[in-house]
Amino acid sequence: MQYYFNKTLKCNFDEAIDKVTETLKKEGFGIITDIDVQHIFKKKLDIDFKKYKILGACNPSFAYKALLAEDKIGTMLPCNVIVQELDDNVVEVSAIDPIVSMQAINNSALAEIADTVQNKLKRAIESL
């Protein structure tokens, strides 16, 4: 079972970050975390790694509803979106599938929220 959906873009890494951020914004998501894996690996491990960022996308309205339905769901928030450079001007964007990630939780109210969030994330990725 695939736990993410993705799309490959023909642009540079920084353009991809901007496109992803703007597209997610149109679906009601803000970027609340921005983890620069390349920088961390270089600084902490002295390892050169490809351009790779983990963006924490959050739609506050759905996060609020999810936390009301299941107070431990915060362990799975925000929705991670990765942006990684595959080659020069080839960037892959991948987003977690919230339905798959929430399957372990038996909560119908949460399942409805996950379905809505999945549709929004999938629409954002597909429209890139």
List keywords for this structure.
128 residues; alpha+beta; TATA-Binding Protein; five-stranded antiparallel beta sheet; 28% strand; globular
Short summary:
The chain has 128 residues and is α+β, with helices and mostly antiparallel strands.
Description:
The protein has a five-stranded antiparallel β-sheet with strand order 1-5-4-3-2. It is an alpha+beta fold. It contains five helices and five strands; from the N terminus they run βαβαβαββαα. A hairpin with a 2-residue loop joins strand 4 and strand 5 (90-96). It has a single domain (4-126), classed as 2-Layer Sandwich (TATA-Binding Protein). The two termini are 24 Å apart.
Layout of helices and strands, plus pairs?
Blueprint: E1 4-9, H1 13-26, E2 30-36, H2 37-45, E3 52-58, H3 60-69, E4 79-87, E5 90-96, H4 98-101, H5 108-126
Identify the overall geometry. globular
Q: Give the number of DSSP strands.
A: 5
Mean pLDDT, all residues: 97
Radius of gyration: 15 Å
Estimate the helix proportion, in percent.
40-55%
- Architecture (CATH level 2) name: 2-Layer Sandwich
Give the oligomer, counting copies of the same chain as homo and different chains as hetero: single chain
**What is the number of helices?**
5
Q: What is the chain-wise order of helices and strands?
A: EHEHEHEEHH
Strands across the major sheet, in which order? 1-5-4-3-2
Largest sheet: 5 strands, antiparallel
